[in-house]
Write a structure and sequence with these properties.
This protein is α/β, with parallel strands linked by helices. It folds into four domains: about 70 residues; about 100 residues, Nucleic acid-binding proteins (OB fold (Dihydrolipoamide Acetyltransferase, E2P), Beta Barrel), CATH 2.40.50.140; about 190 residues, 3-Layer(aba) Sandwich (Rossmann fold); about 160 residues, Rossmann fold. The strands form four sheets. The chain has a seven-stranded parallel beta sheet with strand order 11-12-10-13-14-9-15, sandwiched between helices. Helix 8 runs antiparallel to helix 10. The chain is globular, with a radius of gyration of 30 Å. The structure holds adenosine-5'-diphosphate and magnesium ion. Adenosine-5'-diphosphate binds next to helix 10. The site of adenosine-5'-diphosphate has 19 residues, from helix 10.
C-alpha cells in the first residue's frame, strides 16, 4: 500500500482551489500524464517542470531603467487618470513615481474599480513588468505584478515559465503548481548522504521548491543541482524497480517449461521458409530460459523484417506444448490483427487455438473470448493494451510476448507479469529499435538480450533515393511504370508537429491527388482518426492487392507486413527521425523482388538534413543508422521525432542524464544487496521513493516473494 503521507499528492487535481471540471480538462492537455492515468492529480502538477524563467531581479531606479527589459520598481501612486468618457480605446493611466522620476502604469479595458483597489492614491506598491519609454516618461503596460510592500514575497524574483495550453494562463498554472508544491510532505531521505555531499545536491523537498520557485536561473536548468537530484531520484526509482523485478524473477522458482516439440514440428512444416541461423539460435536461447526454473525476461532485438514473429510463434508453441497458455501483445490494433492473420493459417495446421482481444472486442464477443481464455480453450491470445485489463484472466499463462516494446511502459510489463500463474509469466520483449546500451539499461535494466543479425535469405537491398519535392511529377511517372509491373506502393505523408488535424488534411489532399493520377479504385487512405473497422478494411484491401497504393499518415510505422509492397515513398522525409525513416523503409524489401524507397524532401536542405538523408541512401544497417542519428542530433531523437527523450520519465526525460543512469543502477543494486527486503531505515525511505514515482507494482513484488 502506498504510504499515507503520499496520499495528498495522489488526490485528484479537482481538490485544488481554482480547479473545476473545465480547468481539469485543460490540465489534462497541459500535463504529461503517465500511461493509464486518466485525470490529473496533484503530483502531476509537481512534476510539471518549467521550461524557463522570467528574471524580475532587476530593481533599477525609474530614471535608470532600461527600456524593453523586465524590471521591478517600488513606487508611490500619485494620481489616477481614467480614460476619457466614451473613448474606450484610450488607456487608463496611473501616474506613479520614485525619487528619481515618474512612471505611468497603463491599462486597457480594465475595470476601474479593480485598478483603484490595486493602486490607491498615496500608497506604495511594488510593480513588476516590462518597462518602456514614452518620450521622457517611463511606462509599464499591464504590470505582471502589483503587490503591497507587506506582500513583497508574493512577487517572485525569478518567475518560472511552464509549457502552456490554450485555456490555462501562466498565472493560473502558477497558482496551481504552488498549491501542489505546498502539499509535498517532508519525506525521509532515501539518497545516500555521501552521494548528496559529493554532488552538492539539496534535500528532496528543497529541490522541488527550487525547481518551482527558483532563487537562481541555475535552479531550473537540467544541469543544476535541483534538477539533477530529482532526475537521479527518478532514475534510482526506475533502476530499483527493475532490479526488484529481476530479483524476484530470480528468487521465484518459476516453473520449468519444456515442451515435447510436437507443435513446433508441425509449425516448422507449415512455415513457407526455413528459419535463419539467428532465428534458430535466438529460439534456443529462449527455450533455455523457459526450461530453467527462473522466470524469464529477455529482449529479442531484430531489425524490421528480420523475422521476429516466427521466433515468437515457435516459442509460444513450446509453452502450449506443456498445456499452458501464451499471449502476444502488439502496440496497435492494426498490428494485432495483422499478427492474428499471419499466425492463424499456421496455427490451424499445428492445432493451436487462437483468440483475439483488442479494444474493439466488446460485449458478447469479448465475454466469449474471456470465457474461453479462462477455461483454457484458447492457447494463444493475441491482442493490444486490452490484454492488461484487470478482468482478463488466463487459465494458465506461462509465456507472454510483447512486440515493439518501447511503446509500452515498465509498469505495464509488471502488470502483465503478475497475470501469470504461480511464479508469474515468462516475458519476451521484441523490438526493432536498435537501442544503444545506455537506453536499454533505462528501459529494461539488466535483462538478457538475443539479437537477430541475419536477414532472411533472398532479400535484395532496397534502392533508396532522395528526389527533391519539385520532382514529384517525375516520381509519379516512375511509379506508374512500377504499378504496371504489379508493384504495390506505400505513400507516407508528412509529420506535422502537434497537430493531428493538419496531418490528416495533408494526407487527405495527397490521397485525392494520387487517386486522380492512378485511379480512385486503386488508391486507399489510412489515418489515425479512422474507425478501426475502416482501417482494417483498407489494410485488408491492400494486403489482398486490391488497392495498389496506400496513402497514410505515420500509422503504418510499426510492424505492418505486406510482402508484395515494394515501394515506399516518404514525403518531407527530412522531418522524420532517422530511426523512424528506417522503420518505415523496413515495410518494403520483404519479398524477393527489388524494392525502392523514395525520400521526397524540400529544397534547399540544410547540411545536417542532407547528411541524414544521404546516410539513409547509403546503408540499411539499423545500428549504424542509430549511431549516426545520435552523432548528428544527440540522443533525444533516437526513438523517432515523436518520442524524443525518454518519455517514460517525468524529470529525467530530457537528454543529458546518461552518466547518472549508470550510477543509479549501481546504487540500486548495492542497496538491494545490503538490504534485500528494504527493511532498514534507508530501505523504508526507498520504498517511499518507489511509490513517489509510481512503481507500486515493484513494491508489491515483496509480498509475492
Ligand atoms: P519483423 O522482425 O519486422 O517483425 P516479420 O516477423 O514480420 O519481421 O517478418 C518479415 C517477413 O519475413 C515476413 O513476411 C515473414 O514471413 C518473413 N520471414 C520470416 N522469417 C523468414 C525466413 N527465415 N526466411 C524467409 N522469410 C522469412
Ligand atoms: Mg514485427
Amino acid at each position: 500500500m502506498r504510504p499515507d503521507v503520499l496520499a495528498p499528492l495522489y488526490a485528484s487535481a479537482l481538490g485544488l482551489t481554482g480547479v473545476g471540471p473545465r480547468a481539469l480538462g485543460f490540465l489534462k492537455k497541459a500535463l504529461r500524464l503517465p500511461p493509464g492515468v486518466a485525470d490529473p492529480r496533484v503530483i502531476d502538477l509537481v512534476w510539471h517542470t518549467p521550461t524557463g524563467v522570467i528574471d524580475r531581479r532587476a530593481e533599477p531606479t525609474v530614471a535608470g531603467a532600461i527600456a524593453g527589459t523586465i524590471a521591478t520598481f517600488k513606487v508611490r501612486v500619485l494620481k489616477h487618470r481614467p480614460s476619457p468618457r466614451g473613448n474606450k480605446k484610450a488607456p487608463y493611466k496611473v501616474q506613479c513615481e520614485d525619487d528619481t522620476g515618474r512612471i505611468d502604469l497603463i491599462f486597457f479595458h480594465m475595470e476601474r474599480a479593480f485598478i483603484e483597489r490595486q493602486l490607491p492614491e498615496g500608497e506604495e506598491r511594488y510593480v513588476s513588468g516590462r518597462v518602456d519609454r514614452y518620450g521622457d516618461t517611463a511606462q509599464m503596460v499591464h504590470p505582471d505584478y502589483i503587490v503591497t510592500p507587506e506582500s513583497r514575497a508574493d512577487l517572485p524574483s525569478l518567475e518560472t515559465v511552464y509549457p502552456l495550453t490554450a485555456g490555462l494562463s501562466g498565472k493560473i498554472l502558477h497558482k496551481l503548481v504552488r498549491q501542489a508544491v505546498a502539499t509535498v510532505p517532508d519525506l525521509p531521505e532515501w539518497q545516500n548522504p555521501t552521494v548528496l555531499d559529493q554532488k552538492g545536491w539539496p534535500p528532496f523537498h528543497d529541490a522541488i521548491s527550487a525547481l518551482h520557485r527558483p532563487m537562481d536561473p541555475a535552479d531550473i536548468s537540467s544541469g543544476g543541482p535541483a534538477w539533477q537530484r530529482l532526475a537521479y531520484d527518478e532514475l534510482l526509482a526506475g533502476q530499483l524497480a527493475l532490479a526488484l523485478v529481476r530479483q524476484s524473477a530470480k528468487a521465484q522458482r518459476g516453473r520449468s517449461i519444456v515442451g515435447d516439440g510436437s507443435i513446433r514440428a508441425k509449425l516448422k512444416a507449415a512455415l513457407p521458409f526455413t528459419l535463419t541461423g539467428s532465428q534458430v539460435s535466438a529460439l534456443a536461447e529462449i527455450e533455455q530460459d523457459m526450461a530453467s526454473e527462473y522466470r524469464m525476461l529477455r529482449l529479442l532485438q531484430g531489425d524490421v523484417g528480420s523475422g521476429k514473429t516466427a521466433v515468437a510463434l515457435m516459442a509460444m508453441a513450446s509453452a502450449v506444448e506443456t498445456g499452458a497458455q501464451a499471449a502476444l501483445m502488439a502496440p496497435t490494433e492494426v498490428l494485432a490483427r495483422q499478427h492474428a492473420e499471419t499466425i492463424l493459417p499456421l496455427a490451424e495446421k499445428a492445432g493451436l487455438r487462437i483468440g483475439l482481444l483488442t479494444g474493439r472486442e466488446k460485449g458478447r464477443p469479448r465475454r466469449e473470448v474471456l470465457e474461453r481464455l479462462a477455461s483454457g480453450e484458447i492457447d494463444i491470445l493475441i491482442g493490444t493494451h486490452a490484454v492488461f485489463q484487470p478482468d482478463v484472466h488466463f487459465k494458465d499463462l506461462a509465456f507472454a510476448v510483447i512486440d515493439e516494446q518501447h511503446r509500452f511502459g515498465v509498469h505495464q510489463r509488471l502488470a502483465l507479469q503478475s497475470k501469470g500463474g504461480s511464479g508469474g509469466a515468462n516475458v519476451l520483449v521484441m523490438t526493432a529499435t536498435p537501442i544503444p546500451r545506455t537506453l536499454l539499461m533505462t528501459h529494461y535494466g539488466d535483462l538478457d538480450v538475443s539479437r537477430l543479425t541475419e536477414k532472411p535469405a533472398g532479400r535484395k537491398p532496397i534502392k533508396t533515393t532522395m528526389p527533391a519535392e519539385g520532382r514529384i511529377e517525375d516520381v509519379v511517372d516512375g511509379l506508374r511504370r512500377m504499378l504496371a509491373q504489379g508493384a504495390q506502393i506505400y505513400w507516407v505523408c508528412p509529420l506535422i508537429e502537434s497537430s493531428d488535424v493538419s496531418e490528416l488534411a495533408a494526407a487527405e489532399e495527397r490521397h485525392a491527388w494520387l487517386a486522380q493520377m492512378f485511379g480512385a479504385d486503386k488508391v486507399g487512405l489510412l489515418h489515425g482518426a479512422m474507425k478501426s473497422a475502416d482501417k482494417d478494411a483498407v489494410m485488408a484491401a491492400f494486403s489482398a492487392d486490391h488497392l495498389k497504393v496506400l496513402v497514410s499518415t505515420t500509422v503504418i510505422e510499426v510492424g505492418v507486413n505486406v510482402p508484395n509492397a515494394t515501394v515506399m515513398v516518404i514525403e518531407q522525409a527530412e522531418r522524420f527521425g532517422l530511426a523512424q525513416l528506417h522503420q518505415l523503409r523496413g515495410r518494403v524489401g520483404r519479398g524477393d523482388r527489388q524494392s525502392y524507397c523514395l525520400l521526397l524532401h524540400a529544397e534547399p536542405l540544410g547540411v545536417t538534413a542532407r547528411q541524414r538523408l544521404e546516410m539513409m541512401c547509403s546503408t540499411e544497417d539499423g545500428f549504424l543508422i542509430a549511431e549516426k542519428d545520435l552523432e548528428l542530433r544527440g540522443g533525444g531523437e533516437l526513438m523517432g521525432a515523436r518520442q524524443s527523450g525518454m518519455p517514460e520519465f517525468r524529470v529525467a526525460g530530457v537528454p543529458g542524464f546518461e552518466d547518472l543512469l549508470a550510477v543509479a543502477r549501481d546504487d540500486a543494486s548495492l542497496a538491494l544487496n545490503q538490504d534485500p527486503h528494504l527493511m532498514s531505515p534507508r530501505g523504508q525511505a526507498l520504498r517511499t521513493l518507489l511509490y513517489l514515482f509510481e512503481c507500486d507494482e515493484a513494491v508489491r513484488l515483496f509480498r509475492a516473494a
